[in-house]
Design a protein that fits this description.
The protein is of the alpha/beta class. 41% of the residues lie in helices and 11% in strands. This is Alpha-1,6-mannosylglycoprotein 6-beta-N-acetylglucosaminyltransferase B.
Length: 792
């Protein structure tokens, strides 16, 4: 009598009764075998996927013996399982199965015969055995073929000495020593062989010439450009609010601001559409990466939104997003490094390799934090695509700090400079640096009815202090001028506090605590005066106060603040001197809306307070800070600024067949000759050029302002010639070309003229008592200094 293990009988009974687990088992064995087969054979039975290695022959060959061994073990294991299952099934079929059927527990048509199940397992085992034989044959054939190919290509996988690719051999040496330093090289198929180095360096990077035996049609075929779509102004901003995301206090603040300004954006778009008429505007695909909000950069702003922290950057970013969206362009918004990598197509690794695909964006707007993140993760693609980047830069970056070699040699290198971008790619909050592009932001624009209501509701003796953080109120000497102000006006503050009044705020100040933006606006509409303590510099609040009918009072700095004498500016890529808390308000708006006085002079300060109390002002907002002004400006930039194509003017010192300049009738400056053909593609149009020789020690920025004009650095290449000096009747005893951010210029001791050797160093900023600088100036639209009269 044959005895059977009870546990075995129970297991077989459960398998045959339930069926479902056994079916899953059979399917699982088959699926596992198929997956293992495909993995072992690599790409021999399948088309290459987009992310596959371009060197699949290595993957196909490596691991051949291991694959055959595992397949044999699978086959042996299945045969053993068949023997044991066959014994148990026969026993079960002769007793338990018939009894279960006799008791009527299950329908017989749902129970396949045990022998049928065994046949399936035997078939799988036989198939795996057959597959193992076929795998062995294929891998042997592949090894033989690979050996022959290697023999034939061995002489073709040596670094070529091609003068067009002088860095090729050096890069191959580097790859030999360091290709394992970043997993991205293996991702692109580098495996330590000379061929893989050369293929990578010629097809992924561009340091080596293409290999003649490679399929150049496949590797060099560029994707077809998408058909151009015309941009259409948008009037519904709900999708933009979705794109902005949530989860951060800074994003919540930005979305609230966008909602509040929606009606003004829509009205501004209608006005600009009428102004542009039928001008065709191509829709751009734009990536906006707000780097300072990423966790990797620390995101110091979000936690401070509800505690009185600075909001200027978030105000500007919210308005940039709204303007780009309303103009009709395609937007992608990222506030994390992971999102950035995904949208750019960054390969896995440490960021040393190029992107896995052509950049799908026409433009990228980011900040210095985002710029650094892109450089770390885009590899050589950063150099290739950096001309598409626009950097939102509050305080500006001067050319001397931007040029890496020059900054390093001459002491201009800082933590924020040396990017070697076109200086116009940096976009500032205020138009203080003509070397950069003025981006700006918007303030609320009032209609005539609202303006009249504000004038009627003004309190003549109410002042609001500019400063929401208690640290701002620690200014030494504030008690002296605040006590003078307190004699004439009731002083209000909006200083953040949690439980008790900040000790820095004097008792006679009525502190409202941190107010939501709409309530702060209402406070400004009642106040007569908005007074600054000297910090923060160049924020949006003074413009908002002036737009709500306040007079802005600020302190004059003597000596002016700069990176040389003030900690706040130290390390910033600019030598600009700041003569007041808000230079734009002082220089572009001025009295009666803006008063700049010496707070250390009590008599001057008190006289200013008395004069302000008797001065009547209307709400005022410069056009360039309206929604329409910002839309107009950004439209012009997107339409005309192209830093990926150089105009390639004549080299320094070259003489044109016919001079494009004429001396003005009063013999003070140069103008573009009317009978001279205009430079094709130049923007701003060159006919707006006016060239002046600045006084000794005067920067071009100031020299142009002296004549009611704006310095235009894009015109420097047209002046960078001996002809320009001759037309101005400057006696040049000699001409030299050098790298210097003050050139072109005339050195009076020695009567020598200097031309600029490096185009990235053309700079409106900078002066020296040794030189008289040759300065390119242009006109500008009323209320829009960023654009010339014909720039639209």
């Amino acid at each position: 009598m044959i005895t059977v293990n009870p546990d075995g009988k129970i297991m077989v009974r459960r398998c045959l009764v339930t069926l479902r687990p056994f079916r899953l088992f059979v399917l699982g064995i088959g699926f596992f075998s198929l997956c293992f087969l495909m993995t072992s054979l690599g790409g021999q039975f399948s088309a290459r996927r987009p992310g596959d290695s371009p060197f699949t022959i290595r993957t196909e060959v490596m691991g051949g013996p291991e694959s055959r061994g595992v397949l044999r073990k699978m086959s042996d294991l299945l045969e053993l399982m068949v023997k044991r299952m066959d014994t148990l099934a026969r026993l079960e079929n002769s007793s338990e199965l018939h009894r279960a059927a006799g008791e009527g527990r299950f329908a017989l048509d749902r129970l396949p015969a045990g022998t049928g199940l065994m046949e399936r397992i035997q078939a799988i085992a036989q198939n795996v055995s057959d597959i193992a034989v076929k795998v062995d044959q294929i891998l042997r054939h592949s090894l033989l073929l690979h050996s022959k190919v290697s023999e034939g290509r061995r002489d073709q996988c040596e670094a070529p000495s091609d003068p067009k690719f002088p860095d090729c051999s050096g890069k191959v040496e580097w790859m030999r020593a360091r290709w394992t330093s970043d997993p991205c090289y293996a991702f692109f198929g580098v495996d330590g062989t000379e061929c893989s180095f050369l293929i990578y360096l010629s097809e992924v990077e561009w340091f080596c010439p293409p290999l003649p035996w490679r399929n150049q049609t496949a590797t060099r075929r560029a994707p077809k450009p998408l058909p151009k779509v015309q941009a259409v102004f948008r009037s519904n901003l709900s999708h933009l609010l979705e794109l902005m995301g949530s989860g951060k206090e800074s994003l919540i603040f930005m979305k609230k601001r966008t909602k509040r300004f929606t009606a003004q954006w829509v009205l501004a778009a209608q006005r600009l559409a009428q102004k542009l008429g039928g001008v065709r505007r191509d829709q751009k695909q734009i990536l906006v990466h707000i780097g300072f909000l990423t966790e990797e950069s620390g995101d110091v702003f979000s936690p401070r939104v509800l505690k009185g922290g600075p909001l200027g950057e978030m105000v500007q970013w919210a308005d940039i997003l709204a303007a780009l969206y309303v103009l009709g362009h395609g937007l992608r918004i990222t506030v994390s490094l992971k999102e950035l990598q995904s949208n750019l197509g960054v390969p896995p690794g440490r960021g040393n390799c190029p992107l896995t695909m052509p950049l799908p964006f026409d433009l990228i707007y980011t900040d210095y934090h985002g710029l650094q993140q892109m450089k770390q993760h885009m590899g050589l693609s950063f150099r290739k695509y950096r001309c598409r980047i626009r950097v939102i830069d509050t305080f500006g970056t001067e050319p001397a700090y931007n040029h890496e070699e020059y900054a390093t040699l001459h002491g201009y290198r800082t933590n924020w400079g040396y990017w070697n971008l076109n200086p116009k790619q940096f976009m500032t909050m205020f138009p203080h640096t003509p070397d950069n592009s003025f981006m700006g932001f918007v303030s609320e624009e009032l209609n005539e009815t609202e303006k009249q209501l504000i004038k009627d509701g003004k309190a003549s003796n109410m002042a609001v202090v500019y400063g929401k953080e208690a640290s701002i109120w620690k200014l030494q000497g504030k008690e002296k001028f605040l006590s003078i102000l307190n004699k004439y006006m009731e002083i209000h503050g909006t200083v953040y506090y949690e439980s008790q009044r900040p000790p820095e705020v004097p008792a006679f100040v009525k502190n409202h605590g941190l107010l939501p933006q709409p309530e702060f606006q209402q406070l400004l509409r009642k106040a007569k005066l908005f007074i600054g303590f000297g910090f923060p510099y160049e924020g949006p609040a003074p413009l908002e106060a002036i737009a709500n009918g306040c007079v802005f009072l600020q302190s004059r700095f003597s000596p002016p603040h700069s990176s040389l004498n003030h900690e706040f500016f130290r390390g910033k890529p600019t030598s600009r001197e700041v003569f007041s808390q808000h230079p734009y308000a002082e220089n572009f708006i001025g009295k009666p809306h803006v008063w700049t006085v010496d707070y250390n002079n009590s008599e001057e300060f008190e006289a200013a307070i008395q004069a302000i109390m008797t001065t009547q002002v209307d709400p005022y907002l410069p056009y360039e800070y309206t929604c329409e002004g910002m839309l107009e400006r950004i439209h012009a930039y997107i339409q005309h600024q192209d830093f990926c194509v150089d105009p390639a003017p004549a080299p320094p010192g070259a003489r044109a067949p016919q001079s494009p300049f004429i001396l003005a009738p009063n013999a003070t400056h140069l103008e573009w000759a009317h009978n001279t053909s205009l430079a094709p593609g130049a923007w701003p149009p060159v006919h707006s050029l006016r060239a002046w020789l600045a006084a000794t020690g005067r920067a071009c920025t100031d020299a142009c302002l002296d004549h009611g004009l704006i310095c235009e650095p894009s015109f420097f290449p047209f002046l960078n010639s001996q002809d320009a000096f001759q037309k101005l009747q400057v006696p040049c005893d000699g001409i030299e070309s050098e790298m210097n951010h003050l050139y072109p210029a005339f050195a009076q001791p020695g009567q020598e003229c200097f031309l600029q050797k490096e185009p990235l160093l053309f700079s409106c900023a900078g002066s020296s008592t040794k030189y008289r600088r040759l300065c390119p100036c242009r006109d500008f639209r009323k209320g829009q200094v960023a654009l010339c009269q014909d720039c639209l």
